[in-house]
Amino acid sequence: MDLQIALLLGQDGLTNGAIYALLALALVLVFAVTRVIFIPQGEFVAFGALTLASLQAGKLPGTVWLLLALGVLIGVLEGSRAVRAGQLRRLPLIVLLNVGVPLLLAGTLIAVSPATLPLPVQVLLALMLVVPLGPMIYRLAYQPVAEASVLVLLIVSVAVHVALTGLGLLFFGAEGSRTPPFTEVSFAVGDALLQGQTVLVIVASLGLIIALYLFFERTIYGKALRATAMNRTGARLMGISGTLAGMLSFTLAALIGVLSGILISPITTIYYDSGFLIGLKGFVGAIIGGLASYPVAAAGAALVGLLESYSSFWASAFKEVIVFTLIIPVLLWRSLKTTHVEEQ
Amino acid sequence: MPAVRSTTLLAVFIVALLVAPLLLPEFYITLLDYIGLYAIVALGLVVLTGVGGLTSFGQAAFVGLGAYSSAYLTTVHGVSPWLTLPAGLLVTAVVAISLGLVTLRLSGHFLPLGTIAWGISLYYLFGNLAGLGGHTGLTGIPPLTLFDLEVKTGREFFYLIWAVLLLALLATRNLLDSREGRAIRALRGGSVMAEAMGVHTARSKIVIFTLAALYASTSGWLYAHLQRFVNPTPFSLTQGIEYLFMAVIGGVAHVWGAIVGAGLISILKQWLQDWLPKLLGQSGNFEIIVFGVLMIFVLQRARDGVWPMIARHFPQPPTRAQLREAPPLARRERPAAGAVLLEVKDACKRFGGLVANDRMNFQVRAGEVMALIGPNGAGKSTMFNGISGVDPLTSGSVIFRGERVESLPARDIARLGMSRTFQHVRLLPGMSVLENVAIGAHLRGRKGFVAAACRADRDEEDRLLFEAARQIERCGLSEQMHEPAGSLPLGKQRIVEIARALAADPCLLLLDEPAAGLRYLEKQALGDLLRRLRDEGIGILLVEHDMDFVMGLADRVVVMEFGQKLAAGLPEDIQRNPAVVEAYLGGVE
Questions:
Q1: Do A166 and B192 touch (CB under 8 A)?
Q2: Interface predicted TM-score of the whole assembly (ipTM), two decimals
Q3: Which domain holds residue B225?
């Protein structure tokens, strides 16, 4: 391996690492706030990328129908609850929010031809289509069992992941997609060529991390989430609704997932099931941070990206084996470090 | 006689299995073969998840280990399939134990996460090792031969698969209904209590994880010789997830749930794979959408799965454990009355900046009741946890029967003859009072997992249960013996905890607020019981807020405030001590 290849691999690894870091942060966030191990995080990556690709190809992405279907389900659930509680006044709002908005979105997409729209508008549309799925899935799948054990929540997560993967195949088919790069710029650094898209991914990831930091430090919702993460009951006594905290953290996780998907889809071909492995690599990073520390999780994720990139050079067939086996020494290290007393 | 009828049902089931291959067409036999193979794996998950409260998504990888071990050894090295079975089991056990050692000390969710990573990694390893045939796999695996008979067709395999499944099922059922089985059932939500009763919970966890892996590996061995070729696909993470779905949908807490779940999922899959592509107009494994949604629904609405709904229509197996008159268990040698049992020296416990116990010193002698009293938050329960090893001291020493125990784990301290109750009752609410109390006698038996699985433990089991019953009777709870512990009022649950502690045959009994929630007459009965125990030479360390109860019972009293010893002495002196009065009632200005 000469220096040029080393630099190239390093660049590759850091780009992927930045994405894994974003996902790791989202995973830590969701786990801290809701105790949900958010396996379906990866599906948001794939859905984001593939929805954008569908829009660009002039097709109506299947995620519209999912949005509509989940909206109708929630509308029925919330509506019947409102009727039972005698709060008929709430009905119009419930219907409008859960069914009206998705319908409007679907109508817009059919009316205009999204392929001709400028890229930022397409990205915005993709975000509007996929991000709301996060809180909606929380409402439907997790909230009814919010008080269950971590184990039950984890099995729910795996079930959601499985269902979404199947839906991904249904919506986007088995072929992968790649979106055109956001920028064609490239820089020469010594002998190596630095791609503009790579820089963009790293800069955008860092920007998002800073934005998240500001959100948690400076805004009341961010503080509410942190409070819930520290002490669920205490936060609830202070008037922070667990459901709201759950929805909010799922919205953030979905947003991070979709943005990650949109950022990498010009670099790698994304298939309906690619998200899972990408999400899991974020997980390995998150586990390095013990599912608790944000900076360690981010650093761990960057390490995973680099390891993956260099092992794809040395032993490309065993790339996944190496990355996922890394978790074993990590867990060993964590188990030696921990002095854990199980309390119920 | 419900017991007889449930045996009859089992007999009917076995007869049905015997005649099924003679009547059913080939298609159904193949389906039943696979249901059997899946059920063996799901059965392991029942023990791991439903009973032990742990879980794994990586069972398919263990199936793969069994299948590939046999495929490789038979095709490349020409080893007999009957030798590759133990070889595969050995490989699986080594892998499972190492993985278990790494993950099981961490909180519960790291194990399933580890198994996901591990499932993926092994899948890619199978697919990329040239020696294992890469993604095309290995072909030409020999059939099984029994003497001169070749077990080759689906029909012949049917008997083998279902015989293995039934054996595994009976062994599992036997195991769960035993001393080690109770320890396994205590893992779910009761690790702290189980450790304090002498159960090595980490070991129990590794054993059930390994057991589940071995079941999976056996299924893989059968699979390899049924199919006669292996490739990585059936050992992927997706299949691992499906195994868990089978166990959960069937009824993850019941051994029969494994068969029901494997059957339901396999049949549903057949059916969906026929219909969904036609319905949706494309081909693909869309059945996973239905499975995912179904799982979410089951977990939200019927977490116990399908089996309990079926079982309702069958005669219930006897809910009461069979109590047989049995010779008493050996008792430990007791120290002479008045001998120092426990000595606490300069005990300190810090939680960050908070000093919960500050240089505590006291002794407890055999045959005395020593009361530890003090206002709420004085550090009494922390002191208990420090002495019993549940939450070790920061510094200082605890000497129990002449041995330093402050750095021993709770289970080793229990082995020396210290037994305790908890301020917040720690019973297993779904288990009967008798079984809960029998956990206390855990250290008085020694039959292990294998003996339990093949019922070679019945003599000892009778003695353990009989001892538990004796202690329950002694505490006045005979009438509730076979009721679920969770159905008792809180005061009675505290008495169950005392009976459980007594079942350990302790020299020193640590009771944390035993009289809380008891009525007047019940308190009197408890006082009488504790006096009798004292007269037998047991030392009792008691934390209690009911002063009438304490002063009427205790021989000596230590008063704690803000983690420190405020006063010590005879009950009547303590009642007159101005510092104690001030601590309880506030100073007189």
A1: no
A2: 0.89
A3: 33-266
